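To close the chapter, one final illustration. This time we ask the reader to focus less on the individual chains and more on the assembly as a whole: which components sit near each other, and how the overall shape emerges from the parts.
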Amino acid sequence: MTEKNLVTAIRDTLHEEMAEDDRIVLLGEDVGARGGVFKVSEGFLDEFGPGRVIDTPLAESGIVGIAIGMAMDGLLPIAEIEFADFIHPAFDQIVSEAARMRYRTAGDWGVPMVIRAPCGGGIHGALYHSQSIEAFYAHVPGLKVVMPSTPADAAGLLRTAIRDPDPVLFLEHKKCYRLITGDVPDGADLIPLGPADVKRGGDDLTVVSYGYELHRCLDAAERLATEEGIEAEVVDVRTLAPLDTETILASVRKTSKVVVVYEDNRTYGAGAEIAATIAEEALFDLDAPIVRIGGPDIPAMPYAAALEHFYMEPEPDRLVRAMRDLARS
Amino acid sequence: MSAQVTEAAPEALGLTGDDLLAMYRAMLTARLIDEAALRQNRMGRAPFVVPVSGHEGCQIGTGWALRPGTDVWVPYYRDLGIVLRAGLTPYEFFLGLFSKADDPSSGGRQMPNHWGSRRLKILSHSSPIATQVPHAAGIAYAARYRGDDVVVGCWFGEGATSEGDWHEGVNFAAIHRLPVIFVCENNEYAISVHQTKQMAVRDVATRADGYGIPGRVVDGSDVLACYAAMREAHDRARAGEGPTLVECKTYRFLPHTSDDDDKTYRSREEVEEHRHHDALIRFGALLRERGILDDAGAEELRDQLKDEIDAAIQAAWDAPDPDPQTALRHVFAEDGP
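The assembled structure is written out below.
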């Protein structure tokens, strides 16, 4: 085990995988000479050469489309979208091409491609460097959508994503990059795409979350345990598509109370799917209505510190209060 | 610079009499399939047909420069001639037209003419226009990365050149001097929108200047000129000199699809005028001049192909439909990660 922050775990995993398999190529804006705006590929250009570390024109649809072609012809491309906010021009290539390729050819062609995209807010990124985009893509059959919250998960899930025969959208929350540290297994640890992970055990209520919000939920759970003896079980979804409903439902059946927490704006977000699944499958196991906490339904996260803080935390101790109220209901 | 390519003697191009006859046969096959497919449409057996008539010359001319089994084909929906050249059989075409279980492109999942076959190295494509252009660049990159002697041919209409994906794919291929040939089948219309409403330039090929690659304009009814331009582009690609944009001036004799009414946007006189420049007639005359095919031989060939197509239609019509339960399959790889 080695302690790392999340961005270092991603960098090291990419480095190890590229050293092992020369079918892997990186492409995107600033991934080469600059080493990526978050330094994920720093030094890669010198080590692996310009044939494998490709600085592309500023054209997201092209980046993804070219990666699709590479993947259809034997390479394992990892396309980097510099910020998830900039992925929208590639929506058609991801949704109509990559995700539908296997289905539309009845299994003849596949697209073994990873698209990495730093996402999420709370980093003074404003409208176009803070977006949560997971719901757009988790809706699409044929595409896997992953968002790790810990360095170990990031490493293990990325390794699996690279080996996956189908396209994977790998979302990395920017706020977690350097803030979140943890032990990462040395060597090729593989974490399957799909299973959720219970990050904290507890009997009084279930909290379902992912990404940076997962850490806020863990903090709130610790406070409630220390100060009030309320034990929350915290489930990290990790993979939004496919969604591990079994782990979520098992926890909900045990605690009979659940709150779903996500940073994306609330309406039609990932939490809606999770809440609907719980309502369908475990309604009579519940002792209280499902609580859903998402971001406000405003077009995006604003820039000014006070406004951004409002998006992340509209009222003080929102999570602690919601969890306490639910536990005591 | 874009430059006009004019007709060359077949011998100078390395084409034998047998080659010319095979090219004519492929063009005629495409034309006869087209006519047969529209009859199937009127009979109520085929809800959707995408005609090729008018494009056969530029498709067979350009397609003939690629090597079936070696090179990669990235066609669009009007490219019946291209996929026949790549190795698709009339029977396989009709399996697709009737959306049968054994349709090699998609098992009846996509509309007809949405080609794709790993076996034949034909890339699968969708309906949104020009999305296959970046794919062609990516495949060419992968081939060159491995050092494979492979050239990628990528076909599209002039309408595709308005799309961002077209620009992004051509630009990337040009930057990396990839072994790919971009072929524009310019038939003047993006469904109903005339070229003059699509672009302010006369020749799509002039756009090549903006990417630092050669552009070539050819008469799409001149099969040998199309072949010559494509051969030159193929040689350049194999020599590591990068992509070429070949523009074939062509014309579609029939509506965009069986659901289109082209009388709403172009006159019958205009269509009739273009029919006088039919590549099939022009190429047939060349074969007669050279004593490769006489009138009786042409008639015999037509009858033989018609019989083959009729048999293909019958066999495809009798083939099984997809099992409804299979609609859930192939969302992801079935053998897992």
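The first strand of chain A starts at residue 2 and ends at 5. The two ends of chain A are 42 Å apart (CA to CA). With these observations in hand, you are ready for the problems at the end of the chapter.
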